[in-house]
């Protein structure tokens, strides 16, 4: 069980997150949704202490998460990655193994096999020697998913991993997400997708600087919650009365 308790973040005098509390079960696929500026990326970074929290605690199986950072893998937004950095696909994924070998230690045969398996899983092993700047957007996202896989973490925090990816990559990534869920991993995925895609998640967290709602897609995506989170920025589709069917206005 991953537990976030009363997490608050301020940027100067602006409250970015206010008293966020929720719990996630192992083997769950959780979508983190909300409007731009709602605090989705801030939440993921604060959970990892990449930015300071004003208050709050995070536990994984009743122990502070900060004492178990090796159990967490993080995939940042595309905009936070320098795609022109001169590094190959293989070396990007191998970076996930530095906690096992150290920055200047030799990588073990086991780490090499783990990296190979991760690249094969995302169907990029044949491109292992290619610079990441020469890949397509979907391939680049798959590289960083492979890096998360090679870390062999129990918790994966993914910040908009499906942004600007091709259909093949999207299908492959969903397949891997579902496999990880079956393996007992916990996935928290910040996303912008709407419509039937949200039905794929076991749980949704709806943010608007505070936690508006948490639960199944049907429990979360009510007209009242949507109004509270988006203020009318989106509205239910007139296609039918299914509350998960939403369109941007």
From TrEMBL:
Pfam families: ABC_tran
Single GO term (MF): ATP binding
SMART domains per UniProt: AAA (SM00382)
PROSITE patterns noted in UniProt: ABC_TRANSPORTER_1 (PS00211), ABC_TRANSPORTER_2 (PS50893)
Keyword annotations of the record: ATP-binding, Nucleotide-binding, Transport
ABC transporter domain boundaries: 2-234
Domain of life: Bacteria
The family this protein is said to belong to: Belongs to the ABC transporter superfamily.
Protein name (Swiss-Prot/TrEMBL): Metal ABC transporter ATP-binding protein
């Amino acid at each position: 069980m991953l537990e976030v308790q009363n997490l608050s973040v301020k940027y100067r005098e602006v409250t970015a997150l206010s008293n966020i509390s929720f719990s996630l079960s192992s083997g769950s696929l959780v979508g983190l949704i909300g409007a731009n500026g709602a605090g989705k990326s801030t939440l993921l970074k604060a959970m990892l202490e990449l930015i300071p929290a004003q208050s709050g605690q995070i536990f994984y199986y009743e122990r502070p998460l900060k004492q178990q950072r090796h159990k967490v893998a993080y995939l940042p937004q595309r905009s936070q990655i320098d795609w022109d950095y001169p590094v190959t696909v293989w070396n990007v994924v191998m970076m996930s193994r530095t906690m096992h070998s150290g920055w200047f230690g030799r990588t073990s045969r086991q780490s090499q096999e783990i990296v190979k398996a991760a690249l094969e899983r995302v169907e990029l092993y044949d491109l292992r020697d290619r610079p990441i700047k020469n890949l397509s957007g979907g391939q680049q996202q798959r590289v960083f998913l492979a890096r998360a896989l090679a870390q062999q973490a129990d918790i994966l925090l993914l910040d908009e991993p499906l942004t600007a990816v091709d259909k093949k990559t999207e299908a492959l990534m969903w397949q891997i997400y579902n496999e990880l869920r079956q393996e007992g991993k916990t996935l928290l995925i910040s996303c912008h997708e709407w419509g039937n895609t949200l039905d794929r998640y076991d749980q949704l967290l709806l943010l608007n600087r505070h936690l508006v709602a948490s639960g199944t897609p049907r429990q979360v995506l009510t007209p009242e919650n949507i109004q509270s989170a988006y203020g009318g920025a989106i509205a239910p589709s007139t296609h039918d009365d299914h509350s998960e069917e939403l369109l941007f206005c």
